[in-house]
């Protein structure tokens, strides 16, 4: 239930910002609609496909060849392919420009759901070697969101550079998982042989986290960095913190 809610929160937020952007675009809108609809359709197809792979046990059966890591790359590669097309890249830039810095921050509040993985670790169903360096920092990032928003927009004591650093840290925390996930299952990196192991993360619905949700959060973090590096992209940049 928790994974489903997080997935709906993140994908719903993406769809909402896309709908709002399209609605505000001047006519003709066919180009932006086609680009964004195609992108969202690709993500949807991958979401269904990775779910089917997980339900059928495909990720569990192929831990040795690091199939899950390939799954993590799919949304990132899809996004990169769209960005390689100049017309699509311009649409993406305007889409990013239409999203406020605060919205880019608040969507990460849903990462409080990482408390579920911490509870599973305490119950002995997920290993500490994975949850402590991945799940705990993920939860801390979510806890920091209201504080960061307050400091940046209410007190204005942190600025653009600090927000960029926060986003870099936010997506960087996902990177160790690419190796840590495989330390207790048959793989070239296996180090731990005693239970608990990380097999649950390879099964549905938790498999959606490394194969869909984590890449989406990485994409969102990087979109926020683009927004912060180019504040002149939209009018709402005037509400963003200064460069200090």
Structure notes:
This protein has 244 residues and is mainly α. The chain is built from eleven helices and no strands. Helix 1 (2-24) packs parallel to helix 11, helix 4 (67-83) packs parallel to helix 11 and helix 7 packs antiparallel against helix 8. It is globular. The model is unreliable at 234-240 (pLDDT under 50).
List the topology elements:
Layout: H1 2-24, H2 30-55, H3 58-61, H4 67-83, H5 86-97, H6 101-106, H7 115-122, H8 128-154, H9 160-172, H10 177-180, H11 208-229
Helix pairs in contact: 1-11, 2-4, 2-5, 4-11, 7-8, 9-11
Observed structural traits:
66% helix, single chain, mainly alpha, 244 residues
The fraction of residues in strands falls at under 5%
- What is the C-alpha radius of gyration, as a whole number of Å? 19 Å
Shape: globular
Average pLDDT figure: 93
Spans of at least 5 consecutive residues with low confidence: 234-240
Number of strands: 0
- SSE string: HHHHHHHHHHH
| Sheet with the most strands, sense and barrel status | none
What structural category arises from helix and sheet content? mainly alpha
Described by its quaternary structure, the protein is single chain
Span of the ends, CA to CA = 41 Å
Could you estimate the helical fraction of the residues in percent?
Answer: 55-70%
Task: State the helix count.
Answer: 11
């Amino acid at each position: 239930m928790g994974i489903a809610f997080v997935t709906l929160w993140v994908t719903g937020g993406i769809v909402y910002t896309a709908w709002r952007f399209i609605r505000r675009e001047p006519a003709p809108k066919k180009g932006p609609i086609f680009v964004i609809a195609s992108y969202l359709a690709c993500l949807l197809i991958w979401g269904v496909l990775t779910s089917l792979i997980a339900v059928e046990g495909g990720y569990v059966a192929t831990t040795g060849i690091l199939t899950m890591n390939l799954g993590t790359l799919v949304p990132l590669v899809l996004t990169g392919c769209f960005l390689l097309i100049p017309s699509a890249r311009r649409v993406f830039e305007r889409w990013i420009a239409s999203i406020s810095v605060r919205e880019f921050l608040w969507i990460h509040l849903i990462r409080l759901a990482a408390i579920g993985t911490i509870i599973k670790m305490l119950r002995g169903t997920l290993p500490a070697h994975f949850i402590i360096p991945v799940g705990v920092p993920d939860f801390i990032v979510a806890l920091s969101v209201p504080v960061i928003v307050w400091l940046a927009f209410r007190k204005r004591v942190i600025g653009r550079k600090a927000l960029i650093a926060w986003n870099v840290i936010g997506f960087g925390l996902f990177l160790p998982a690419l190796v840590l996930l495989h330390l207790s299952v048959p793989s070239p990196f296996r180090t731990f042989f005693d239970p608990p192991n990380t097999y649950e993360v390879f099964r549905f619905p938790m498999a959606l986290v490394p194969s869909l949700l984590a890449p989406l959060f990485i994409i969102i973090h990087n979109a926020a960095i683009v927004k912060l590096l180019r504040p002149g992209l939209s009018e709402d940049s005037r509400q963003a913190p200064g460069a200090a």
